[in-house]
Design a protein that fits this description.
Largest sheet: 8 strands, mixed
Order of helices and strands: EEEHEHEHEHHHHEHEH
Radius of gyration: 17 Å
Structural class: alpha/beta
CATH topology of the largest domain: Rossmann fold
Mean pLDDT: 97
CATH superfamily of the largest domain: Alpha/Beta hydrolase fold, catalytic domain
Helix content: 25-40%
CATH class of the largest domain: Alpha Beta
Shape: globular
Distance between the termini: 30 Å
Low-confidence stretches: none
Length: about 260
């Protein structure tokens, strides 16, 4: 495991594999570092960075949290890579990647986004207005399991009756360990899960080639959000993966990313 030091002094842990142009992988909510499946498939053509977002795994977590600090973490990885990188993000990590690209467009040279969870219409209920503040209160009260449950029902739309069998499993324990970061992703999303149209000028500096991807077995709101984002950015490719939902398989995703990032 290697480390970089972010601008505020936070240690950010990462692993690098492969050779070629740099690709940085940005994970989403309740997820740790990317597993080896996608990096292994990209490594023959790219130098792939998979890292622990702050507050997760081997990375530090300097308070107070701000989205700008997570952008600086990506910036530190780009510096380590030589000053520029292609960036891929999934789910709320896609929105963090989008924020990073908008704040340092000269350093993010290409951008790929899988199913940013924007809610731009009535295809599903929006997040509660107090979503982030309620998560903060649950974590302050050490109610980590309740924070996970709240995220999975309010944000992910999982019916409450499905959660009973998940509690007490190793997967649930892993999510509890990351519960304090759920509000971080809520702050990354801002008000883009409110059921309103995306702000027209929010990412005006994102002019680099951008690939926006969804699966054909995903929920309609992911498709609506991806379509809405694609209309805002000037240099966008739109791709739908056959047989894929939100938990996209590396075998389906890797060839699409490799073709795009090689361009």
């Amino acid at each position: 495991m290697s480390h970089v030091i972010s601008q505020d002094g936070t240690v950010i842990a990462y692993e690098r594999s492969g050779t070629g142009p740099t690709v940085i992988l940005v994970g989403g909510a309740l997820g740790g570092r990317f597993g080896p499946e996608l990096p292994t498939r990209l490594a023959p053509r790219f130098s792939v960075y998979r890292y622990d977002r702050r507050g997760r795994g081997g990375s530090g977590d300097t308070a107070p949290y701000a989205v700008e600090r997570e952008v600086e973490d990506i910036d530190a990885l780009i510096t380590d890579a030589g000053g520029s990188a292609r960036v891929y993000g999934i789910s709320s990590g896609a929105v963090l990647a989008l924020e990073a690209a908008s704040r340092m467009p000269g350093r993010v040279t290409m951008l790929a986004l899988y199913e940013p969870p924007f809610i731009v219409d009535s295809s599903r209920p929006p997040l509660p207005d107090d979503y982030v503040t309620h998560l903060d209160a649950l974590i302050a009260a050490e109610r980590r399991s309740d924070a996970v449950e709240y995220c999975m029902t309010a944000a992910m739309g999982i019916p409450e009756e499905y959660l009973a069998g998940m509690r007490g499993t190793p997967m649930w324990a892993g999510m509890e360990a990351l519960a304090h970061t759920i509000a971080y992703d809520g702050r990354v999303m801002g008000d883009t899960m409110s059921g309103k149209p995306l702000p027209a000028n929010a990412w005006a500096t994102v002019t680099m080639p951008t690939l926006v991807i969804t699966g054909d077995e995903t929920e309609p709101f992911f498709v609506a959000g991806a379509d809405a984002l694609s209309t805002l950015l000037p240099d966008t490719r739109r791709k739908t993966l056959t047989g894929q939902g939100h938990n996209v398989e590396a075998d389906a995703l890797a060839p699409v990313l490799a073709e795009f990032f090689a361009g």
